[in-house]
Design goal:
Length: 318
Amino acid sequence: MENQNALTASNESSLRDLQLFCNIARRGSFVAASTEMGLSPSHVSKRIAMLEASLGVKLFQRTTRRVSVTSDGEAALQWAQKILEDVQGMADAFADRRTELRGLLRISTSLRLGREHVSPILSMLRQRHPNLEIWLELLDRRADLVGENFDIDIRVGEVQEPHLIAHKMVDSARILCASPEYLARRGVPADLSDLAQHDCLLFRGRDDRFGVWRLSGPNGEKSVKVTGTVASNLSDIVVQWAKDGYGVVMVSIWDVAESLRAGELVRVLPDYLQSADVWAVTAERLSSSARIQVCIEFLREQLTSGPYALVTHGVGGF
């Protein structure tokens, strides 16, 4: 029994080293990987040195400015990723025979969606499945699901990558809004083309074309080039600027639902909107994972009807 326990501990340590190796390669930094995994940089360096010694190859080229994977490291990285995927796949294959889900879930999403909605929902999921490990990363850009080793990306807007599996979570749209003060001062736009003469608060989402708003209306889809003196990649900021009377903003209905109800913002050109459904995206090889299926279904349920649901109907004429 003592020998068996020692073997189990050794195997677990080896898997942790492979996970550590993959994280350093993904981050391009020993410090960032050590922070993510809650380890000291010295311990990380020691474990990688032991892994290099056991494999007999140099995995990383280290300089004072950056860490890069060597050619041997690239080959080792492919093996490490496959081993970790196979181990997790084996666990997933038997997951339905257990009452508790286990393993690590790596999830990415945008900043406001993650902070206000996904994060508390994942906390609820963790209460139901205390043996799950969760890493949530909030990004102001579109995540590379495969390259950055995420299990799920929660995103707004169309999923264009053909190699990914898209699971619709919530039907939603982006709408145009402005404060009553701004509209009283500058007038209410009567047509989409009028926006070219208005101050528009430019919010660039994770994959949006900057300075061009494309919306669907009574005569199909139309585009209008908009300009403004202030812009941000955070929706919180542009929504606040809109409430402060600086111009017209286009954001998801759930982002401004409370402001519309409070009268801080008014919907502009209500016949126009931009489709902005919320999706959970996975790599094809992960789509059958029990952990991921449970997580996606729980997120869908909570985002549509739970305490942290996205409000997408019943406000602003939508």
